[in-house]
Amino acid sequence: MKQIWQWLKEHIKLVSLVILVTILALWQLWPAPSVNNDDLTVNSSKTAQKSASKPTKTATSKWLIVDVEGAVNKPGVYRLLTTARVYDAIQHAGGLTEQADTSAINQAQKLHDQSQVFVPDKNNSSTASNTAQTTSANTDSSPADTKTINLNTADVTELQNLPGVGPKKAELIIQYRQEKGSFSKIEDLTEVQGIGEKTFAKIKSQLTV
To answer: Can you give the pLDDT at residue 86?
Structure first.
């Protein structure tokens, strides 16, 4: 035993080197940890669910369809950008004719899909037609002997013909129309600041859209 211990002391460097080489060899040959196939399946499933849960961008149409009629050179149905105004629709329809009455329309008004732009003729005094009128608009007619005011086409002066509507209220009606688009029904007038139920009740028989 003393001889072995003595030999180890004399060859300590060699013994240390052998031990180190043995450890490295065992580390290289040690089997890698196995991967559970079930775990791979679960992780793949979670990844697929995350991908599916991400909201996808839905394509929204940038076009609208408008019917342009009346005193224009090329009446018809046109496809315009959603940012188009009444003026753009008129230009697509070949522009105004010489008999067009532009005082009855708001060329800066925004358009909506399935709407109609009607440009009245100077020889036609009817104000029942609606600029940028949608297909769902109110079509009730008024008595022939009663002059009606079209909320969607009337200017400030015409609006002041309504009882209780002065310059300020007329301007608010125009402002509402420019910001929110055409009135779809006459009852929408009560959404305008300063137009209450009592005022509306007095003038509703003279209104149209």
So the answer is: 92
